[in-house]
């Protein structure tokens, strides 16, 4: 019944949003303000199917009954639980932040390694540090977020192929997802969770419009793209700039691989003296790690093909890692082995 109700809600919501989208087309400024989106690569997880007919939000109250291993799933080994999410106002009410969504996604990323009920139990344990009423509010937010994840997964499956879409169709779909977010989550929480994503999505739509506009010259397109990017939040804009610089750095490393002095000069010119020195040290450390990792990997592969039984093989692997890596590096090596 919940599945049918959720599908009916999604269909009614889509009809309403599409109608408002066409009404807004007469005012481009308003469209730019309201048509926000989900990432097309956002994780699609069939959460309802994993637990039978139970809705994902029902798991929030049932999760304490789940058996949760003492150790984190292998995919989270060596990582840290996000912090900065436990914020409340002077009355003890929860303040929604991007960090709270990061906490949810940190554990949900291990879906498949553990059941959804186990991961929800881990999130509940993390939220238990909150006092009331913030704790109950956080649990409600978790349940609503899980329902949103399922609803957006259903909607994305109905879209089918997304490549090659025009800006108008992308914007329509993004408007539908924005409406879903604000159906399952209150406005403050949706803004806190998705503001940056939606800013990037608006930029991507504008970028598509600019690059597909044959009436613009290459210089005009470049200038229009710079102006569009300037509207992004400062942290995202800086991250994009850093990404471009390091992409240029990787290209320079390949082109100047046989001329270390020229590469060092390039680093100083682009990144400055201090950052260039740090990069040089990191390169030396990475090369040393690569050599040790390759030596370990060769011995590990021979060990795995030796025919040892499970417990003996595990102990032999632990001894092998201890012979090649320090304690911190062993955590990294174990994590890399788990995704091999």
Summarize the entry for a quick read.
The protein has 340 residues and is mainly alpha-helical.
Q: What count of domains describes the coordinates? A: 2
Poorly predicted regions are 1-53
Helical content stands at: 55-70%
Q: Say how many strands there are.
A: 0
The average pLDDT is 80
Shape: globular
Tell me the fraction of residues in β-strands, as a range: under 5%
Number of helical segments with 4 or more residues: 15
How does the major sheet shape up? none
Order of SSEs, N→C? HHHHHHHHHHHHHHH
Integer-rounded radius of gyration: 25 Å
Explain what the structure shows.
With 340 residues, the chain is mostly helical. It has two domains: 210 residues, no CATH class; 48 residues. It is built from 15 helices and no strands. The two termini are 42 Å apart.
Question: How are the SSEs ordered, and which strands pair?
Answer:
Layout: H1 2-24, H2 28-34, H3 47-50, H4 58-62, H5 98-108, H6 116-127, H7 134-159, H8 167-184, H9 187-211, H10 218-230, H11 234-255, H12 260-271, H13 273-304, H14 310-324, H15 327-338
């Amino acid at each position: 019944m919940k599945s049918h109700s959720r599908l009916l809600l999604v269909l009614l919501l889509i009809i309403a949003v599409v109608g408002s989208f066409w009404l807004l087309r007469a005012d481009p400024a308003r469209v730019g303000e309201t048509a926000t989106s989900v990432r097309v690569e956002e994780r699609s997880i069939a959460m309802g199917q994993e637990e039978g007919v139970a809705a994902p939000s029902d798991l929030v109250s049932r999760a304490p009954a789940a058996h949760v291993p003492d150790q984190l799933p292998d995919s989270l080994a060596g990582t840290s639980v996000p912090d900065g999410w436990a914020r409340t106002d002077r009355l003890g009410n929860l303040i929604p932040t991007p960090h709270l969504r990061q906490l949810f996604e940190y554990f949900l990323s291990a879906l498949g390694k553990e059941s959804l009920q186990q991961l929800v139990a881990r999130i509940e344990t993390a939220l238990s540090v909150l006092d009331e009423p913030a704790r109950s509010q956080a649990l409600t937010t978790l349940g609503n977020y899980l329902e949103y994840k399922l609803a957006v997964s259903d909607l994305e499956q109905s879209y089918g192929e997304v490549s090659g879409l025009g800006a108008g169709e992308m914007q329509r779909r993004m408007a539908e997802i924005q409406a879903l977010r604000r159906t399952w989550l209150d406005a403050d929480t949706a803004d806190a969770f998705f503001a940056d994503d939606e800013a990037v999505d608006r930029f991507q739509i504008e970028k598509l419009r600019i690059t597909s506009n044959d009436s613009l010259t290459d210089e005009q397109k470049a200038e229009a793209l710079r102006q569009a990017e300037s509207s992004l939040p400062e942290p995202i804009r800086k991250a994009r700039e850093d990404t471009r610089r390091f992409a240029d750095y990787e290209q320079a490393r390949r082109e100047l691989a046989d001329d270390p002095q020229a590469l060092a000069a390039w680093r100083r010119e682009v990144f400055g003296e201090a950052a260039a020195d740090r990069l040089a040290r990191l390169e030396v450390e990475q090369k040393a790690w690569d050599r040790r990792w390759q030596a370990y990997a060769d011995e590990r592969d021979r060990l795995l093909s030796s025919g040892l039984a499970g417990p003996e093989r595990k102990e032999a692997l632990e001894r092998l890692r201890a012979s090649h890596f320090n304690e911190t590096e062993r955590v990294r090596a174990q994590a890399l082995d788990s995704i091999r």
